[in-house]
Specification:
binds magnesium ion; 2 domains; binds threonylcarbamoyladenylate
């Protein structure tokens, strides 16, 4: 670690210890962190985000040092202050996927503050893979409670600059700059608090089939968002840009767009297209080329996840009256991206009230 980062880490450590907030880099998105054992510090997260108090936070914990002789035992020691019971299944998931973009929901211990769990009897925990945040956690020795570092209902930040633009009125917020996020969307969340199979609460880059392939463990898909009102990411209107965002179906893009393009005055639209369809769609829409900006992207779920929030943030600054994006294929590999796009679309637009009503 270079000297600059070491100094920054010292500052971050002192800030966390003093009960203040620090924005932390993770491999998924940036988090807005506070000492998970300090009630006043945790309250500051809710205040700054504008997040309702019953929306629980994830506690971030350190990983055992590489080369440890008994990793399972080390993980149990790390989790012991926060959890009541860890099943064999949960331990298998931990040893395979931590540190990494997987959050697990456990039965909570008495020590976990109610303000962290929104009063629930369970607690969400993950060990993030970013080396700077791991080092901070190691020096701190405790847990850091952190939601994504965006204002409530808005797009998660995937760079230090994004965090800055989320909180323009807080120029003193300490941001640990760890570069752009590797995965670009929030972690997969699994509920392992009960006796049965783990339940998928939020899709992410670790999919049920990846889990099955590397551990043999089956994951139960959640049967609809209405059943988990406490997972704020499951509220329909999350991750939303200010510009109206529309998902279009690949087969009739021309007819869907002509409705918009025949309006007067002419609208300026950003149309995202799959790379391999780019010239084909340009041909189909040639009557409107003056008012359309095409953005070609590769049809690859991992790559799109990584770029998605960056793309939406940038287009949101582009003075468009609408952003169009193709509906991703309905396959598991696209579940996480499709989920974020549907929510972003539902909550989008300059005067959307959907954040409150859902
Ligand atoms: O990748 C991530 O998970 C990022 C980084 C910063 O770690 N964090 C993140 O936090 O996305 P947030 O607060 O934006 O989303 C956390 C989700 C919320 O949907 C919350 O409701 C859910 O985790 N959650 C937290 N505690 C829970 C619990 N006890 N039971 C069920 N869901 C819980
Ligand atoms: Mg969030």
């Amino acid at each position: 670690m270079d000297e600059l980062h070491s100094l920054l880490l010292d500052r971050a450590l002192n800030t966390i210890r003093a009960g203040q907030l620090v924005a932390i880099p993770t491999e998924t998105v940036y988090g807005l962190g506070a000492d998970a054992s300090n009630r006043d510090a945790v309250q500051k997260i809710y205040q700054l985000k504008g997040r309702p108090a019953n929306h629980p936070l994830i506690i971030h914990v350190q990983a055992p040092l590489a080369g440890s002789k008994d990793t399972e035992k080390d993980w149990l020691t790390v989790l012991d202050p926060w959890t009541r019971h860890i099943s064999e299944t949960a331990l298998t998931l931990i040893t395979h996927f931590w540190p990494g973009p997987l959050t697990l929901v456990f039965e909570k211990s008495k020590l976990v503050l109610d303000c962290v769990t929104g009063g629930q009897s369970t607690v969400a925990i993950r060990s993030p893979a970013h080396p700077l945040t791991q080092e901070l956690l190691r020096r701190f020795g405790g847990g850091i409670a952190a939601p994504s570092a965006n204002r409530y209902g808005r797009i998660s930040p995937t760079s230090a600059a994004d965090v800055e633009t989320e909180f323009p009125n807080n120029p003193n917020l300490l941001i640990l700059d760890g570069g752009p996020c590797e995965h670009g969307i929030e972690s997969t969340i699994l509920d392992v608090s009960g006796e049965g199979l783990p339940k998928l609460l939020r899709p992410g880059s670790i999919s049920p089939s990846m889990i099955k392939a590397s551990t043999g463990i089956d994951v139960v898909s959640s049967s609809g968002i209405a059943n988990q009102p406490r997972v704020s990411g499951t509220h329909l209107a999350h991750y939303a840009p200010h510009t109206a965002l529309y998902l279009y179906s690949e087969s009739d893009i021309a007819s869907q767009l002509s409705g918009f393009m025949n309006q007067e005055p002419k609208l300026r639209l950003a149309v995202i297209v799959w790379e391999h369809e780019h010239s084909h769609h340009q041909e189909e829409l040639k009557a409107y080329l003056q008012n359309i900006t095409f953005i070609a992207i590769a049809m690859d779920p991992g790559l799109l996840a990584k770029q998605l929030y960056r793309l939406l943030r940038d287009l949101d600054q582009g003075q468009y009256q609408g952003i169009f994006i193709p509906s991703p294929p309905k396959t598991e590999a696209w579940d996480a991206v499709r989920d974020r796009l549907q929510r972003a679309s539902f909550g989008s637009g300059p005067s959307s009230n959907n954040h409150v009503s859902s």
